[in-house]
Amino acid sequence: MTARFPGVILSGGRSSRMGRPKALLSLGAARLIDHVVARFAPQVTALALNSNNPDIALPGVPSIPDQFADFPGPLAGIHAALAHARAFWPDASHVATIPVDAPFLPLDLVSRLAASLTGPDDVALAISDGRIHPATGLWPLSATDRLAAWLENPPTLRVQSFLESLAVRTVAFAPIDTPRGALDPFFNVNTPDELARAREIMAALESLSNGMEPHRGDIP
Known about the structure:
Distance between the termini: 22 Å
CATH architecture: Alpha-Beta Complex
CATH superfamily: Spore Coat Polysaccharide Biosynthesis Protein SpsA, Chain A
Number of domains: 1
Number of helices: 6
CATH class: Alpha Beta
Structural class: alpha/beta
Largest sheet: 7 strands, mixed
Helix content: 25-40%
CATH topology: Spore Coat Polysaccharide Biosynthesis Protein SpsA, Chain A
Strand content: 15-25%
């Protein structure tokens, strides 16, 4: 089922808590965005990047800015993904989205979300540790105009509020075992402290892969 869906990495925010563009931060031997691409790109049929910063770009990957001004949050990135998908991937029923600050995302994310869909208008979202991740999911192209109308005059910019008008399916993902303990697979790098933790985990994983075989449950 994975082969049906294109994907968009959401990197249109201001990175205000980090103080600099998160996508370009070093994490191990690569940038944060490169880790997300490596794990996400094999799961989708085509890839685009939602970015409002010309410095955040990927070779050969189209960059799509928000269509609404003043950084209205994740909903604007999701709308940009849907509008792009409708224009360039009209045969797709859904577009897969993932935030740029989730470098440990599951390698079976899209296939598991796809398995939960019951129709072309469903939204499928990831859950971990009892918390829903509205920017991590499969969004139906049929919601494009409804989301645009919402953003034209938003009663709120909370993604959860917009979702109340849609059929939402959820898929729970378990913590991942790492040499530094259990890790939420959707761990977000939003602050300097979280970046430091991600670097420790990545360094431990790289040392493990260069030395001994990881045990079951480790990030590949």
